Amino acid sequence: MNSKLRIVPIMLTAVLSAGLLFGGWFLYKQVVVAGPLEEALREMPGVVSGNPVIDADHVNVHLKLAPDADLREVYERIVTQGATAIGDRKVRLFIEDSEDAGLETIWSTVLFDVAEAMETRRYSKIPAALKELEQAYPGFKASTEIDADNVYITMRRGDAVKHVVLPRIPDTLGVWPNA
């Protein structure tokens, strides 16, 4: 009977210690690491809402942008204002856009040209391909920007907007998570 009494306090202590350890780590990660990045996203021009998820290798930022947002500027601000939280992790943007079948159809017609330009690193072909689409589809407008990390494409058709961020150095499988 004595041995049963000793096992219960030991198990209880182990469970409480593990709870405090993991709870403390979770609280630290949310308040100290992700908190400042969430605050920066709330105050960032062009960002309607944002939610960063910090993993070991990546910072995945789920965004809803204003229709007039400058995608490259938003990315740049996230990287600079969230530098302490981001550290040496890669930043990936996942943008929630309004669903528009017509805009998706237009994007699918140029996707091969964009993929080829990204693969061959001939980035100047992307704006040229999108300009052709502007002529072929009335009301369609596209803009492109580039920096050291990504190619940014913003497409508009009426009230619908689609934002695409393509990493200049693709992940291992070369899959674009937000295309």
Automatic annotation (TrEMBL):
Transmembrane segments: 7-28
Superkingdom assignment: Bacteria
Keywords, alphabetical: Membrane, Transmembrane, Transmembrane helix
UniProt-recorded name of the protein: Quinolinate synthase
UniProt organism field: Paenibacillus cisolokensis
Taxon lineage: Bacteria, Bacillati, Bacillota, Bacilli, Bacillales
